[in-house]
């Protein structure tokens, strides 16, 4: 097994040995969950309306007024344990004003504190929009759920509300590929995420090869979250999910780091094939399983109304507001929440901190995770 190491200043975006977004490390070292990661939703604008979008219903045509970045930074100053900062939307790069007034100051602040950063972008905007600030970013996270431009046209504009020509969609798709290659060649750590669905799972091998061809250093694979726009989409069965993972492991480019997030298989499973998969993914080179950050080490802040939630696409109501509460106080409030107590189990012998709430509700609604124990050791 690849045992987790302690963090070092040399671990810029993270590594196989230490992924700073993974709550496992702090839970193992301190015996409790701590707030080490904050995510800001900095825009509700986007030039796409993807069918799988987990925040699609929050997107707007005109942006509201955001909380001054100085106020956001003040709240970050109160988090002594902070290790990572994520920026999401919408499409964060769509508005030059958001980039200038919110994103760049947050990245500079994080750099001054030695905090690692990630920004989620669809990467379809002109390359020039990323220049002048991307060098301060540790991870540029993109979505890749397409085989070709025709797929992109259907998926990215499924909920758009008006017709978009195939030619216009193809231009954006090609720009995304070109931007990924250019930024990767320039030394940017690009991490592409694929959501396993009935559509993507049969093609995961080819999609992985596309990710590698773009120069991405990491390929993240997650379940399709049944939230927001994706609520009506079909989900893969656990058997299909397992088969897709095994196909990807066999066909992967060994130079690309594969990260499985919110994996819907657990070491306490009654099924031997699930336990064997857990073991294999922890033994393969250049593959990691990230424990769920949401509610274990991360909170999400909406910069327009100040609301703080466990995740940017969950159904748990806001836990507080940065206008009245500090983030550590809100995080402690969450740790006392009935849902946290229900799902915050811990099996150190198997390197597991329990399930993602949405995944557990989808696939394991009858399970009491707090009463189960790992049946394997790493």
TrEMBL record:
Q: Which InterPro entries match?
A: Aldolase_TIM, rSAM, rSAM_sf, rSAM_YfkAB, YfkB
Residue ranges constituting the Radical SAM core domain according to the UniProt record? 30-259
Q: Which SUPFAM superfamilies match?
A: Radical SAM enzymes
The protein's matches in PROSITE patterns, at most eight in alphabetical order, are given as:
RADICAL_SAM (PS51918)
Q: Which Pfam families match?
A: Radical_SAM (PF04055), YfkB (PF08756)
Please provide the record's keywords in A-Z order: 4Fe-4S, Iron, Iron-sulfur, Metal-binding, S-adenosyl-L-methionine
Q: Where is this region: Disordered?
A: 1-20
Please state what the protein is called: Radical SAM/CxCxxxxC motif protein YfkAB
Q: Could you tell me which species this protein originates from? A: Salinithrix halophila
- The gene that this protein is the product of is yfkAB
């Amino acid at each position: 097994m690849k045992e987790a190491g302690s963090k070092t200043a040399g671990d810029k975006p993270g590594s196989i040995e230490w992924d700073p977004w993974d709550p496992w490390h702090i839970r193992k070292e301190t015996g409790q969950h701590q707030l080490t990661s904050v995510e800001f939703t900095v825009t509700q604008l986007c030039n796409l309306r993807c069918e799988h979008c987990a925040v699609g219903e929050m997107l707007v045509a005109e942006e509201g007024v955001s909380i001054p970045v100085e106020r956001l930074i003040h709240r970050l100053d109160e988090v002594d344990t902070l290790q990572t900062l994520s920026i999401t939307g919408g499409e964060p790069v769509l508005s030059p004003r958001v980039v200038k007034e919110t994103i760049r100051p947050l990245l500079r602040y994080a750099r001054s504190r030695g905090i690692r950063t990630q920004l989620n972008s669809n990467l379809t905007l002109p390359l020039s929009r990323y220049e002048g600030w991307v060098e301060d970013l540790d991870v540029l996270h993109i979505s890749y759920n397409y085989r070709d431009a025709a797929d992109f046209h259907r998926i990215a504009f499924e909920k758009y509300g008006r017709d978009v020509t195939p030619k216009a969609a193809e231009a954006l798709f090609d720009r995304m590929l070109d931007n990924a290659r250019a930024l990767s060649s320039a030394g940017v750590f690009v991490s592409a995420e694929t959501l396993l669905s009935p559509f993507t799972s049969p093609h995961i091998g080819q999609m992985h090869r596309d990710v590698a061809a773009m120069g991405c250093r990491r390929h993240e694979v997650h379940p399709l979250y049944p939230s927001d726009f994706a609520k009506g989409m079909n989900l893969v069965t656990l058997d299909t999910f397992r088969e897709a993972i095994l196909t990807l492991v066999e066909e992967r480019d060994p130079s690309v780091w594969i990260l499985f997030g919110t994996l819907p298989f657990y070491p306490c499973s009654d099924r031997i094939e699930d336990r064997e998969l857990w073991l294999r993914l922890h033994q393969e080179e250049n593959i990691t399983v990230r424990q769920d950050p949401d509610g274990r080490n991360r909170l999400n802040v909406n910069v327009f109304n100040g609301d703080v939630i466990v995740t940017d696409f969950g159904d748990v109501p806001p836990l507080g507001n940065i206008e009245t509460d500090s983030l550590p106080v809100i995080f402690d409030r969450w740790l006392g929440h009935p849902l946290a107590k229900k799902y915050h189990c811990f099996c150190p012998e198997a390197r597991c901190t329990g399930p993602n709430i949405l995944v557990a509700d989808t696939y394991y609604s009858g399970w009491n995770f707090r009463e189960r124990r790992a049946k394997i050791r790493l």
